[in-house]
Batch of 3 targets.
Target 1
Amino acid sequence: MASNTPARLTVLSGPSGVGKGTVVAEVRRRHPDVWVSVSATTRRPRPGETHGVHYHFVSDAEFDRLIETDGLLEWAEYAGNRYGTPVAPVRERLAAGAPALLEIELQGARQVRARAPEAQLVFLAPPSWAELQSRLAGRGSEPAAVQEARLRIAQAELDAAGEFDRVVVNDDVARAADELVGLLTAPSPGLVPGE
């Protein structure tokens, strides 16, 4: 990123199945200079996941300590595990004058908005509801009740798009990644959350 670009905290969120992880992976591939925050989680690593790369895998006690010491910018519980964004690396990145990208769920995006109102919230939307339904159904062999619950949640998450500053449609991963990078580097106030 150009050193004269003001630091900007950008949050990417959107419904389950919209392709947030895929778009962020494409951002990293096409623009390796973009910094993406690594979340902390209490869940166990999955095969192939690396501590500090995919997540910071922490114990429940360590996660409690992060909450108690105001060490998380946001956090949420999902499927019996907790996930959160360590605030120190984000502050360090922004203080150095470089933009920071968070890929988080809607609940976390709302917490960031409350705690860092200068943050730019970007909603990743599917090209259509039918496409999102297809993506969620194609995830595997989940029971119908689980798929229906995911669709209800996804509809509620889609309804929240109006809470965001910008909407990026994920109709083409490379194009969506480039649009997101453009938003990351657009001029904005360079405020650091919590200071």
Target 2
Amino acid sequence: MSTPAQPRPEPSSDAPAPRVPTRVEPGLDPAWVTETVARALDEDLGAAPGRDVTTQATVPSSATGTAHLVARADGVVAGLVVVEEVTRQVAERFGLPRVEVTFVASDGEAVGRGRVLAALTGPVQVLLTAERTLLNLASRASGVATATRAWARELAGTGAQVLDTRKTTPGLRALEKYAVRAGGGTNKRMGLYDVAMVKDNHVVAAGSVSAAIDAIRRTFPDVLVQVEADTTAQALEAVSAGADFLLLDNMPTPVLAETVAAVRALEGTDGVPAKVELEATGNLTLDRAREVAGTGVDYLSVGALTHSAPILDLALDLLPAPPSR
């Protein structure tokens, strides 16, 4: 049984850690995959072991066959790891033999319409029952990877990278952020627990940017602190107050360029880091990507990668049984 390749190798142990709050580990946690697939199957089959009333009534449990996982549109593949797990769990629930899966495409690979991604051979009951769940997950992940690849391709050579956000489908964040990596993007913080993000409401609650940053440093000294800024003045205030990096929100391109230049002029002075990471966000579109990157920001964060990407249309086609002799 072959295994789909992962989108990126892990960085070498002597590579410097990035200061931006990124997570670039290539794989998905197997325990997360198992739990997520189990919940998805419960939705479709009912509480375990569940049932597929159509398939189990019309297909003998002894029938075997082969199905092809096929791309019905051009795009970038991600989430193939779920295919084996979905078929494994369905076979286990029904007490049937496992499906053998042979992958002929890898996560992160650009594929054309009609491309076979994997061949699945085993009990037909398992193939048909597993179909929708594995397609839902793999199509969703591949759609995110496809959208991300468009941004990564547009930013190629600019020195800026595309980031995702927390605007993910509840319960599928790990899969969608994995898909961003497969598409050539970079993950931002995984949640509220790993990086501090000071927004306007936090400033109001704390009394000032400095007070908010100081409170975070005292309470959670191990985390990086990012501050949202809408103006050049706010950006300079945040840097002077000790922010590790800035989220420059909804700035017109000229203002963004002015802000980047002003922050760069402060780098390495009066306790300001030698390199302040700068991230543009808000009102970003693909046709503006290179223009925004040209201001000198390090990152463009795009919520649409996960909250608005259409699925990549995938299908599971059962092959006709060979004629009997």
Target 3
Amino acid sequence: MLILLPPSETKAPGGDGPPLDLGVLTAPELTEVRTEVVEAVGKLAGDVPASRAALGLSPRQDAEIARNAELWTGPTRPALERYTGVLYEALDVGSMTRAQRARAGRRLAVGSALFGLVAGDDPIPAYRLSAGSALPGLPTLRTLWRPALAPVLAAVEDLVVDLRSGSYAALAPAPGAVTLDVLSERPDGSRSVVSHFNKAHKGRVARLLASSTAEPGDVVGLRRLLRRAGLHVEHDGGPALTLVVPAP
């Protein structure tokens, strides 16, 4: 089972890993595009006003640009420990047992505007680049990534659970993947999507799937696993599942 997560805008600083080495990241087929994007982002960091415009940053966020200037030289840490925010707080890899953490490292991967895709244990530096960012002199990130990333995702033989947000799913499709919608249900029966709530519950689902000893092979097995965990999951027979949770 492969669980695809969205990245987060916020990243944990520092790390004790060696500087970035694209050669050790998962999916070496992506190295050429990774190199092109990393070089472009690093070069852009030399022009602070241009970086602000391209990355949608304010002067108060210039530290993010400084991080981009050190992509090749800054320390690294595993991807699952680099990304922060609501989803990753709910995932909470730091509280996993050693066995659970090992499974999480194998099963979880993160969609990335900078690297295309990174495995949970891939060592990466802190950076700032979103799927919607426009790098001067380059095509859109979707145009850059799709030809290289789509074949990588298409070649995955295990069940894929795609929890990526729309902008990252648009970088390349994951054929046949199971998707998960999260709906908040009010006492009157009405339902809605709440972004913050959605991220937290996807993080909890990712934790459950990453740490479980079960290995579902299809959407029915996945639905069964989630229901056994006490989750209210609806399934219309297609590749999409709907997780219904009480409104906060």
